Amino acid sequence: MKFNITDNVVTRALSRICDFVILNILWLVCSIPIVTIGASTTALYSVMQKIVRNEEGYIARSFFKAFKQNFKQATIVWLLIAALGLILSVDLNMARSLEGTIRIVFQVIFGFFSFWLFAIFLYVFPLLARYENSTKATLKNAVILSIAKLPFTFLMMVVVVVPVAASLLTVRTILLSVPIWMGIGVSIVTWLNAYILKRVFKIFETN
User: Fold this and answer.
1) Residues 6 or more apart in contact with residue 159 via CB below 8 angstroms
2) Which stretches are transmembrane (predicted)?
3) With contact defined as beta carbons under 8 Å apart, do 197 and 49 qualify?
4) Is 48 exposed, middle or buried (0-12, 13-18, 19+ CB in 10 A)?
5) What pLDDT, on a 0 to 100 scale, did the predictor assign at position 57?
6) Domain carrying residue 186
């Protein structure tokens, strides 16, 4: 039997790791202006969703193509979510200054909406990456999915929150995790969520 190194599991694994590192770096660089985080995240999900469907081509080329195609719409969505997040953050801080039962009530209310906004954030950029739709329809679908697919929503939150929380436990974990997040961490989290979203998005697929 002739041995083909290109079919070797280790070789393919290393190749995939290199793809993830490239994507991670591209996402970080393209997110530096802050205002471009939405377009960068959409581009990352565009490539990752192709990877989980075994449809990927040239990694960098696909990333920049998706970045360019979705830039305007993704930026509008990102700025809207960022503005709402800032408002909720201010509201939560104000609620902490209150006393008694009213403090608990407002913390619960603003906490709930913060949770929901995070859920919408997890869906909206993958939707932009996967489907051509209006901004209004994309946001509507993200809202619906965040509720209709609640178990998957929680699962994606766990995928994001657990490693981030673990990274922030101590100064030591922060120092150890920074190179990981800068090198491959974001790509791995996105890849895991792309697998979850592959199942979620089946409701949009036609036979």
Assistant:
1) 189, 192, 193, 196
2) 20-45, 74-92, 104-129, 150-168, 174-197
3) yes
4) buried
5) 77
6) 5-204
Whose CA is closest to 78, among 153, 130, 128, 27? Answer: 128
Confidence of residue 14 (pLDDT cuts 50, 70, 90): confident
Query: At residue 131, what are phi and psi to the nearest 5 degrees?
Result: -130, 145
- The one-character DSSP state at 54 is T
What's the number of domains the chain is made of? 1
Residue 24 three-state SS: helix
What is the arithmetic mean of pLDDT over 37-49? 96
Retrieve residue 192's tokens. Answer: 């895991």
- 191 in Cβ contact with 19 (< 8 Å): no
Fill in the amino acid letter for 98. Answer: L
Stated pTM of the model? 0.90
Give per-residue pLDDT as tens, 79-94: 999 999 999 999 888 8
Residue pointed to by tokens 């969520």: 193
Which among 20, 49, 38, 48 is positioned nearest to 201, based on CA atoms?
Answer: 49
In angstroms, the CA 207 to CA 123 distance is 23
Q: How many residues are recorded in the chain?
A: 207
Mutual angle of helices 186-200 and 9-31, in 10-degree steps: 100
Judge residue 17's burial from the number of C-beta atoms within 10 Å of its C-beta, 0-12 exposed, 13-18 middle, 19 or more buried: middle
